[in-house]
Amino acid sequence: MGGGPEVPSKKEKELVLAVLPWPKEQCLAGIDALQKEFDHLEVQHYYSHFENGKVTVDDIPKDVPAKSSYIATLFWLPKDAAHIPKTKLIQFFSAGTNHVAKHPIYTDSNIPLCSANGVHGPQIAEWVVMMDLVHSHNYTKLYDLQKEKTWNQRAGMNVSDRVGKRVGILGYGSIGRQVARVAKALGQDVIAYTASPRKTPESKRDNGYIVPGTGDPDGSIPSAWYSGTSKGDLHNFLKQEIDLLVVGVPLTKYTTHLLSTDEFELLHKSNPRGTYIANIARGQIIDQKALIIALETKQIRGAALDVTDPEPLPKDDPLWEAPNVLITPHVSGSSDAYAERAFQVLAENIRRERNGGKLVNEVNRDRGY
Description:
Strand order of the largest sheet: 9-8-7-10-11-12-13
Organism: Didymella heteroderae
Shape: globular
Largest sheet: 7 strands, parallel
Strand content: 15-25%
Radius of gyration: 23 Å
Domain D-isomer specific 2-hydroxyacid dehydrogenase NAD-binding: 131-203, 233-332
Protein name: D-isomer specific 2-hydroxyacid dehydrogenase NAD-binding domain-containing protein
Keywords: NAD, Oxidoreductase
Helix content: 25-40%
GO molecular function, one term: NAD binding
């Protein structure tokens, strides 16, 4: 009937479903970079509002999850894997996935799950060092005096600088490695603890996502490495006269209440100066009741906690009133660069998924991280 050749239909783009706790304008840099590199992808963004432990998500059309090849999320997941039959990869924008460990997609599917481990190092390391310095320089007392308009030099004279002090990093991942980098710059000694032994140069390397110019890529900073999964292994590490203990291990069955009465007593015996503890991992890793007792009896010098058990911490919880404790509401990972960095992890995983390579930060479901 004439009319010339048929125009080939334009191939439908693959969908990236992004359900994230930032408005779209805060994610545009990451979204634009992703769509520019992969012209076969289209990103649809939905805002998951998060406040004080509660999550609400903008309405997602029912057909969108089923069309998604990739999902970028922090809290949200569809009901089960049957709702996302095309999904090749779920990229969490969080360091851990323990918050979804009982979800059917975690327990009953084989969809690769990846964390954003690596994007938090700079800002969380700054939080750890800031809290340690605030404590060692008596800043909270000085700030209270400022609000009272009181000039009292004596209140700020008892300072312990950081040079020569020992930082013990419990869980030498990307966050711990950046803490180590900053601590080393301050003249501190760093020792590391990992579940598995790191006896060779290759085993000490960081093969995950690294923010350029940060961290300890080749694992050369620690003066000593400790490892193991038994209480004896842990106690051998805690005996090393640690001044600042940084808790950076993932939450698993093994690490729940990893630090309790025995561990606080051991820290006290091993370091007459007193150990300061910074927890940026999960609240349940520390036995909170035992921590309060350790603070009250001065078994430890103090604690900086960005995570608690539970969250939000109830107003009547005795932890609020414990001596020498600084508490922030799980915000140490916040940064204006967070979303952009996490999209970079997603982009790397899409590259590797397309090329059949090993994914970055893929979660081992049996291990829990």
